[in-house]
User: Fold this.
Amino acid sequence: ATPVEPPRAPAGLGRVVIDPGHGGQDPGALSVVGVREKDVNLAVALAVARRLRQAGAEVLLTRQDDRFIELNDRAQVANQRKADLFVSIHADSAADPAAAGFTVYVARAAQGPSCAAAEELRRHLAEVGDRDRGVRRADYRVLVRTSCPAALVELGYLSNYVEAARLQTEGYQEELAEAISRAVVAYLRSR
Ligand code: ZN
Assistant:
């Protein structure tokens, strides 16, 4: 007899909202090598979503193409759909061209679950990223407005030649996506 595959539970691991920062008329940071933040964010977010779905998570994206979405509407997706985790994906920029590294943010008032998710993200990104700027606190609107655990990842600096050149390659985008998706799976399993 042929063994019948058991149907996978619809939200076996949990429901995750992945939020590619910026889009449409809002390009985000412009890099020293020409690539725009909104495009890096989207490429990494789509790769994260693909991996998470393969792992059995339900994934909602706040945008799947190059369009403008209000910050409050991004948080609303997580709130209305009662997500288990919200992860916003961005890339940094600074006046100092030497600024480098990835950073994970939680809201100032964030508690246990958001901090646990952020720490998983930091730990996994440290395996691919050069410089770990740690988990920091900042009241980004998408973090403050989401009622579920939430973290925001800054993948690296588009104002830094080395990082900007790397961030626009598909290979590095895939590595970052792999790290983020492993972190999300680890967080969802640890709940
Ligand atoms: Zn951004």
About this structure: The longest helix spans residues 170-190. The chain has a mean pLDDT of 94.
